[in-house]
Amino acid sequence: MSVIVQKYGGSSVADLERLGRVADRVASTRREGHEVVVVVSAMGKTTDQLLALAREVSSEAPRRELDMLLSVGERTTMALVAIALHARGLDAISFTGSQSGIITNDRHFDARIIEVRPFRIEDELSRGRVVIVAGYQGMSYRREITTLGRGGSDTTAVALAAALAAERCEIYSDVDGVYTADPRVVPGARHLPELGHPELQEMAEAGARVLNAEAVEFARRQRIAIYARKTGDRHPGARETVVREGAPREASGVRAVVGDAQVAWLRGPGGALEALLQAADGAQVPLRELHTDGRSFAALVPLARVSDWPRARGLFAACGVSADEALGLVSVVGDGLTREGNVVASVLAGARAVGGGVEALWTSPFRVSALVPRAYLDPVTRWLHARWCEAPAPA
Ligand code: ADP
Ligand code: ASP
Ligand code: MG
């Protein structure tokens, strides 16, 4: 029998009615004769609410304790889905990340999966049970509970699909696949029916939330096909995005435009760089786009990956490093982007046209990214999408 991994995100299980619809869908997949592993996220905004609770108690919550707290969100969902499946006459069992054999490093709040030992899942599948797994969590070699970074249930799903040699990994959310831009920001965004892993990884790393960047990287390395679908869409022919190896690529050109509002831009004198690196390492703050000319340096912080930003910002300030949080990152993603200056010129023109200007800009063949005032991030994203991804109106 073939194994299918289905992952349901927070919006798909936001309340009991929706959770019941997920159980219906899982039940029908099982009755079609597949072995089914279901990965679930915390219900709705639960993870944000748990984080807010911790921050109300203390602004310096230990990362280990945050992981103990945050892992509860997914545990709630897994048990409720298993109960809902029992109520539908299916034999189901729920497992936490550690029971599922998801072994991670010990970087709390932003752990990486090192190994998956899904023995218990395999045993239960062979008994004919549906297995429900709490996404976003694992266990370190020190036997501590860890979480995989925001959006990490996608990573759980892909890692399990690889470990179980699943036929497919289906990711269900509130959108019917991947678009040329976030459809919430860009009304004219176009649906992409097929996409290669590298392009989607570039989009995810630029901050497109639709799929977690590590999940896509995992899928690329393990050659797992991802089917991104909308939870309620059950009719045959419903739209989806298939992300797979060898998906036809456009030889060059722009594929998508991505905006990320959750960044901070660090700047300091060259002499403070080593102290900053030490502080960032100690506070587990990842630094991106770090560059220096010796006299000064700058770096970008992806804020979603930082458990305790106010504390880190304080540590950086003590090193003489400033943090600008009023900026957003806009990225044009594609291939062969530096072959001509057009894309870079368009980013500068777009920022000027909406009135913002560019604070910093980076180029690679696959991405051109710029920092713009946060208030202008969405307008610049829309401007660039209209420039590159929307067909010009017929004359
Ligand atoms: P889930 O909670 O199910 O994991 P997410 O909220 O993490 O779902 O991801 C789905 C959201 O991703 C959509 O609601 C959409 O607003 C956003 N998104 C951002 N960029 C894109 C894109 N390029 N294509 C589709 N959705 C996108
Ligand atoms: N619940 C976690 C989050 O909100 C993980 C996930 O949804 O994938 O980030
Ligand atoms: Mg997500």
Strand and helix map with partners:
Layout (H helix, E strand, L loop, with lengths): L2 E6 L7 H16 L3 E6 L5 H12 L5 H25 L4 E4 L6 E3 L8 E4 L2 H8 L3 E5 L2 E4 L4 E3 L5 H11 L4 E6 L4 E2 L11 E2 L1 E2 L1 H9 L7 H10 L3 E5 L10 E3 L9 E8 L2 E7 L3 H10 L5 E5 L3 E7 L6 H10 L3 E3 L2 E9 L6 H13 L5 E4 L3 E7 L3 H12 L7
Parallel strand pairs: 1-2, 1-9, 2-6, 3-6, 4-7, 9-13, 12-14
Antiparallel strand pairs: 4-5, 7-8, 10-11, 13-14, 15-20, 16-18, 16-19, 17-18, 20-22, 21-22
Helix pairs in contact: 1-3, 2-3, 5-7, 6-7, 10-11
Bound molecules: adenosine-5'-diphosphate, aspartic acid and magnesium ion.
Magnesium ion binds next to loops.
Structural notes for this entry:
The structure is a single chain. Helix content is 34%, strand content 27%. It has helices at 16-31, 46-57, 63-87, 119-126, 153-163, 197-205, 213-222, 273-282, 309-318, 342-354, 377-388; strands spanning 3-8, 35-40, 92-95, 102-104, 113-116, 130-134, 137-140, 145-147, 168-173, 178-179, 191-192, 194-195, 226-230, 241-243, 253-260, 263-269, 288-292, 296-302, 322-324, 327-335, 360-363, 367-373. Helix 1 links the parallel strand 1 (3-8) and strand 2 (35-40). Helix 1 (16-31) crosses helix 3 (63-87), helix 2 (46-57) runs antiparallel to helix 3 and helix 5 packs parallel to helix 7. The longest helix has 25 residues, at 63-87. The protein binds adenosine-5'-diphosphate (ADP), aspartic acid (ASP) and magnesium ion. Aspartic acid binds at residues 9-10, 41-42, 47, 73, 135-136, 150-154.
